[in-house]
Amino acid sequence: MPKRTIALLGLLSVLTIVDFDLEWKYGVEYRGERHTILLYIINLTWLTFLWWSAVRSRRQPSFMRNLLSHWLLFAWLGGTHFHILVNCRNICLNC
Questions:
Q1: DSSP-derived 3-state class of residue 13
Q2: Can you list the positions of beta strands (E) in the chain?
Q3: Fewer CB within 10 A of the end CB, N or C, for the chain?
Q4: % helix, strand, coil for the chain, step of 5
Q5: C-alpha to C-alpha distance for 90 and 80, rounded to whole angstroms
Q6: Euclidean distance between CA atoms 65 and 87, whole angstroms
Q7: Domain containing 8: what range?
Q8: How far apart are CA 23 and CA 25, in angstroms?
Q9: 3-state secondary structure at position 14
Q10: Which residues have C-beta within 8 Å of that of residue 51, sequence separation ≥ 6?
Q11: Does residue 73 contact residue 9 with C-beta atoms inside 8 Å?
Q12: Could you give phi then psi for residue 81, rounded to 5 degrees?
């Protein structure tokens, strides 16, 4: 796995944890505590699995492990983070 992917994963991990901290109150207020905790657990599970996959593909390099790690990383991003950009864009267009 390339070093730039590890750097991207590290940056996204830090930003995700910062987002957890900043959005906790909003999540509990508008979605409920149970829903917010569930989303945090899902994201932390994804992060754990992504780091495991990244470390494994660095220690035992192969094309399939590298492909799987990258696929999982971008699937996680697409499923959990890109919708935030769309929502921000829609909010700005409605102003």
A1: helix
A2: none
A3: C
A4: 90, 0, 10
A5: 17
A6: 33
A7: 3-93
A8: 6
A9: helix
A10: 9, 13
A11: yes
A12: -120, -35
d(C-alpha 37, C-alpha 48), whole Å: 16
What token pair was written down for 79? 């499923």
Count how many domains the chain has: 1
Using CA atoms, how far apart are residues 25 and 12, in angstroms rounded to an integer? 21
Q: What tokens were used for 81?
A: 């983070």
The residue type at 26: Y
pTM for the whole structure: 0.74
Q: What does the pLDDT look like over 40-78, one tens digit per residue?
A: 898 899 899 999 999 998 898 889 988 888 888 888 887
- For residue 1, which amino acid is it? M
> For 21-44, what is each residue's pLDDT tens digit?
888 888 888 888 898 888 889 889
